[in-house]
Structure formats: structure tokens, C-alpha cells
Amino acid sequence: MGIMPYEESGHQLECNFQSNSNNRQPNLLSPCSEPSLPPFHSFTSQSSRSYLQALHCHCVTTLKGHTSYVSSLTVAGKFLYSGSSNKEIRTWKINPLNSSVEHVVSTGEGAVKCLVVLADKVFSAHQDHKIRVWKLTSHEPDEQKYTRFATLPTFGDRASKILLPKNQVKIRRHKTCTWVHHVDTVSALALSRDESLLYSVSWDRTLKIWRTSDFKCMESIANAHDDAINAVASSNDGDVYTGSADKKIKVWRKIQGAQKLSHVATLEKHNSGINALALNSDASVLFSGACDGSIMVWQKDDGGNMGAVGALRGHTQSILCLVVVLDLVCSGSADSTVRIWRGLGRDYCCLAELEGHKAPVKCLAASFDRYDQSNSSFVVYSGSLDCDIKVWQISSPLL
């Protein structure tokens, strides 16, 4: 078929499979039935047509160095961080855009599923069920060196829980562990608005909350979903969204006066497993990408509740990643393309399709390049199963 399989275990959740955990059969090339909501119509106004004509997209460079597929990307300051399926984390300084300085942060254990940067630390989620913390040890302008600082759950957290039977949870027949452990791939991470909390989700169906000051596990929500959890997003109003292979998005809200989250809503419109979530800047719009190639758009009503307002369709295979910048949403797919969508009120259309990767696009990141009243541009980074990271510059005088 021309697409290399993932180098992972049987929990291949970015694809289609039956819900039975003993019979998960991934297939990147065969979309499920699409959600029943109609797609958005293309813009028809003169200003919208001018916008489309003025948008300029081109690939500035391709970053090479990873020897296995690029599984995670994030941007912080002047650096791009990338994680791969062979356990490697790298940093790249791209300034100007057509040059790069690259350094290896680590060669840890377990494929890197997600990266989050907080001040001088990097949190990495891994396939070996761990979350690792890396601390910056060099502050040279063109160099970032990190050393491993901690592994979550920490030894102290584990030791404090191990003696009491109430802290033990059954993970399989005749085997238990403490509730602070993830027992399957840690698939995604997200920081709270004030960066005091780190949320992690896993294929073990749990949602965990960690305190970033001392890395203590504050809460674990068991069976948060009916199947593996693939995505998590934290909003500026404190709500947390989780997307799962069970086709559902769940909304969690902090209980007043406590560090605990309570389940407040379930969003159900997808007809296949959910792989990616992204929020716009004010958290009024949520985007969710699924195995059937569709992207659902959810919008808050006057009561603060999310409701589906339509679907973005154009990708021919699974949506694997999403990122929002300004009023644009970028989507990466198993069809090896990146699409850029723009919303105007409750209407959306596809502004561009970026082609160049030779395999599925697994992860995306974005950063501003320039912004003023007359002209603006931003940069999209795409990581793929072809082991490359492509750097795309997007600009428009009307952005």
C-alpha cells in the first residue's frame, strides 16, 4: 500500500479497529462512515475570495536527522522540539527559516508520544507507560542541553502508596499496581492554564493529574472512557477535554475548592475513534479529528455548553493531528497531507492543501513568524512517518 506500519504494539489507535481490545486491527487507508452533520460550505463573499487568493504557502526546508518516524512536535521560544518512535528527542533552532541547528536531548525508553515545555523543563510522554522530565542544563543562545530530571510517577510517590491496599488497582488477572501508575502507553499531555497542573491520558483509559511543582500525582480517574484515550486539551476556563477510541469526547471540570475533576458532559457525534483535539485561543471552539477523515467543529453556546456546528471534510484518510493558530486550524492526516482551514463566523473552508510528505503526517506544531496590521505570517511544522520534519511558511496580507 506504500505506507509503512507503525513500529508499536497492538494498540494502534490512530486507525480503525474493532472495540474489542483483543482484536484491534488498524487500517490507515479505510475510513469509517462519516458523522451525520453536513460539511461547511465554501465562502462566497468577495473578501473571502480575496483571502484565498492572497494566502501564500510554501515549504521552506525539510529537517532531517531522525532515523524513525517523527511522533511528536512542540514549539517553545526559538526552538522546535521533536520526538520519534525510536525514543529520541531532538531540539532545533530555526533562525533564519532556511537554516537549523539540531541537538539530541535524549535517547530514553519508549517511543515519544507527546512533548510539553514548561520553563526550563520538558515533559515527554512515552509508550513504555512513563512520563519523563528533562531539565535544561545549558543556556547558550544556539544550544539547548537537557538531562533527565525525574520520571513520573516518582519513587517517593510510588513508595508512599505501595503499603496501603486501598492504593492498589487491578490491572490484569493476578496483577496489581498503585493508582499513580499508567499501565499502558501515555498518549497525550496538556498543561493547565496557570501551568500548575499537568494532565496525562493513556491507552489504559485513565486521566491523571500531576502537580508540576513536585511531580506528585494528585488524582487518577479510572475508566474515564470505554476505550483507549488518544487526546487531551485544556482550556483557559479550566475545562479539560479528552478524546477516545470509543468515539466520545468527555468534558471535565474542576470541583470548586478541590483539585479533583468532575465529568460534566459527553460530546457524541463522531462515528469512529477520535485521535486529535485542539482549542482556539479563547476556548470557544473545539476541533476534533477522527479515523474517518472528518474534523468536527464544536462551538460554545450562551450557556457555555459545546455543541456540534458542522464537519470539515477533505482528507481521504484518518486525521492524526490538529493545531490552531489565529483563526486557522491545521490538520495532518494519514493521506500524507496537511490542510489549512479558516473559520468565518460559523462557516469554514479549506484554504490550502500542503503536499510533500511521503507518508502519514503524525504531528503538527505552529508558531508566529511576523504579525502587523498589514501583513502577517506563521510557520507550521509537520512530522511524518517518512522521518522528516517539514517547515511551511504561511503568509497573507489579510491574515
Shape: globular
Q: For the terminal residues, how far apart are their CA atoms?
A: 38 Å
Structural class: mainly beta
Taking the sheet with the most strands, its summary is:
4 strands, antiparallel
> Helical proportion?
under 10%
Question: What is the overall pLDDT average?
Answer: 83
Determine the number of helices (DSSP H or I, runs of at least 4 residues).
2
Total beta-strand segments:
30
C-alpha Rg (nearest Å): 20 Å
Q: What percent of residues are in strands? A: over 45%
What's the arrangement of strands in the largest beta sheet?
1-30-29-28
List unreliable stretches of 5+ residues: 1-32, 41-48
Textual characterization of the structure:
Keywords: WD repeat. With 399 residues, this protein is mainly β. The chain is 4% helix and 49% strand. The protein has two helices and 30 strands. A four-stranded antiparallel β-sheet has the order 1-30-29-28, with helices on one face. Strands 2-3-4-5 form a four-stranded antiparallel β-sheet, with no helix packed on it. A hairpin with a 2-residue loop joins β6 and β7. The longest helix is centred in the N-terminal third of the chain and has 9 residues. It is globular, with a radius of gyration of 20 Å. 45% of the residues are buried.
Spell out the blueprint of helices and strands:
Layout: H1 46-54, E1 56-63, E2 70-76, E3 79-84, E4 88-93, E5 101-107, E6 112-118, E7 121-126, E8 131-136, E9 146-152, H2 155-162, E10 168-172, E11 175-178, E12 186-191, E13 197-202, E14 207-211, E15 217-221, E16 229-234, E17 240-244, E18 249-254, E19 261-267, E20 274-279, E21 285-290, E22 295-300, E23 306-312, E24 319-325, E25 328-333, E26 338-344, E27 347-354, E28 361-371, E29 376-384, E30 389-396
Antiparallel strand pairs: 1-30, 2-3, 3-4, 4-5, 6-7, 7-8, 8-9, 10-11, 12-13, 13-14, 14-15, 16-17, 17-18, 18-19, 20-21, 21-22, 22-23, 24-25, 25-26, 26-27, 28-29, 29-30
